[in-house]
Amino acid sequence: MKGWGTVVDANLVTWALLAIIALSLYQGVRRGASGSVKRLASFLGEAVLTVLAVALAAIAASELSPGLQTWLAERSLSRPSADSAALRQFFYTVVTGLRDLPLLRFAALFLIAYMLIRLAAGLAAKAILPGSPGTAASPSSSGGIVSRTTGGALGAALGTGRALLLTATLFAYCALFPLGPLTDYIQQSGLYREVAAQIIRPAAGIVLEERLPVFAKAMSGELDQLWQKRYDVIDAELPGDVVAAALSVTKEHEGDKAKARALYDWVGTRISYDDDKVRAYEELGEWREQNPEATFVTRKGVCIDYARLYAAMARAVGLDVRVVTGLGYDGRGGYGAHAWNEIYANEEQRWIPLDSTWAKTGNWFDSPGFADTHIRQGGVTG
Fold this sequence. Notes:
Radius of gyration: 29 Å
Strand order of the largest sheet: 5-4-3-6
Order of helices and strands: HHHHHHHHHEHHEHEEEHE
InterPro entries: Papain-like_cys_pep_sf, Transglutaminase-like
Pfam family, one: Transglut_core
Oligomer: single chain
Structural class: alpha+beta
Keywords: Membrane, Transmembrane, Transmembrane helix
Strand content: 5-15%
Mean pLDDT: 82
Number of helices: 13
Helix content: 55-70%
Distance between the termini: 53 Å
Shape: elongated
Number of domains: 2
Protein name: Transglutaminase domain-containing protein
Number of strands: 6
């Protein structure tokens, strides 16, 4: 480590931290001892209240989450039609997201509980504590040099607390976004590095460096799932020709798995991969959105189009189906964005993975190596 004597540099983060301390020291001198004591006490009280509110909100969210999930699962919520009002579509997406995504449900309950706790604490403080003076002490009424010196010391302590709070925030940012646009610059600050190494990491390094990124990644995955749920709405209305085809394909098959396999064979052999659509996206940044009806009519599409058409046909014959997004093996040692399906086979009491996009290259219906070539990244809808 460089030590505290060599941490001052030209980095803006360093100067921001020093400016916070210097400004607080100056304000402390102006306020004097009594005013600075009140400010420091207010800052410490706010910090303690925040920690308690966070802890209580986390406990409340953990306790309430299972009950909310059960209550939402018992509600009869019908999928809105594709042409229904945007507010109704939004409501359906949010409610089903809260029902199906545990981290999203916890986060929503946590925020509500935290705000209620802070509101209750604020109302209680107003009811119990007398009103504080409207203005801080002026330099002339600060009580002289001793009071100002004491106030400056208290102001510096307050500034140090504020600087530590900013450092912790920056530390969390660097942990969440190790390749972020500002991460390298922040970590070049000598003062930041020293404070992070000596105080932040020993105090909360495990939470900020290890658990927070894991939680954030999991939460990001759930938000991806919530985004994918839009297909439940926009693909809810099943075109007549798609329904007729699905019924025709599965009419001689019994059981969920047999019907799912028949639909897999049909979609996998009837739809051709749209290389022009891929080139338009990769070279021109042009994404050509298409619904299952368009894929069915044109007989062309990319992986998400295969998956959406398969899901529509599966729903038409009463199958419980998912659209899954993630990464697919590209055959050259890497992975690329991909989409596929899962159907629930009641006779086997399990979800069966299938990839109709790859059907022409081999058997990708419940194949043994499916998980080795398909990496789920949170996107599930159905």
